[in-house]
Amino acid sequence: MRRRKTAIFFLVTGICLSVLAIALNVGWILLSIREALVLVLGIIFFALIITGIILNTVFLVREIRRSEQHDTFLNSVTHELKTPITSIKIYLETLKNREVPEAKRQEFYDTMLADSDRLLKTVEQVLEAGRAKEPRRQYNVTELELNEVLGDAIDEVRTRFSLERGAIRFTPGSEDPIVLGDAEELKTAFTNLLENAVKYSDGEPRLSVRVKQAAIGKSATILFRDNGIGIPKSDLKRVFKRFHRVPNRAGGPGVKGTGLGLFIVKNIVERHGGKVSAESKGVGEGSTFFVQFPTI
Ligand code: ADP
Fold first, then answer.
1. Which residue's alpha carbon is at the smallest distance from atom 25 of ligand 1?
2. In this predicted model, what pLDDT tens digit does every residue of 207-226 receive, in sequence order?
């Protein structure tokens, strides 16, 4: 809130300074109308000052926004790490200090395993995001059947969220599209998109995954469609930025996350020569993510 006020202050200051500079310049032009050379120099100088003021304002606003995003990121990562650790600790203490019946004990173990998975996932996401722009990264590139990699990712998400079979409808590409890529990386991108579709669903998740092959040229587009809470128009591009989370989601603070998932997806897809984009008719209207890859 304080930062937003500061941003508004800088914007207003920038606008006031620009108006002042214009007024000064117009007055000055009127006074020295006969001295053409000085006039030209003055105009150039004036343009430079205005550019400087605009750049300064843009830079400040951007810096403020960036530091705001870092704060949000730190808060969400800390939360994502602390919650499962606290939960594991409570279960371990209970197991240590009390007689727990066997069935309950098994239930505790399952919850602790789920919590450690959550911990590992957060740590992996942070590491993956950090490595995203590494230029000398090693990849295990092979010829991959897109339908198969997608099928694996869908099965993984079905199991992870205990979804019934009908929750994710899959229409594979009819001509077995082949892409050149790293199977693990592509699976990470697909599971991130599917997990989001489940996480941001409104009640029972209903997803559809469809592979469409281009009639001309060699490419395949995968459509990940959900019936979830949707994405406001103004955030459709921004969701792919590092740390960006749509603010004021329905249901209060909403689903927890780090704002790294889609950034990782974009990086993986672009490294494979592909493109990713999002579409949504608006809040509450579901979302569709399009991933396009060149095929061979
Ligand atoms: P995280 O889920 O950890 O917040 P992501 O980078 O995966 O981070 O997503 C960024 C933001 O985009 C999310 O916070 C959410 O607001 C929005 N989002 C992503 N996928 C969906 C979806 N399928 N439906 C609605 N909103 C989504």
1. 230
2. 999 999 887 778 999 999 99
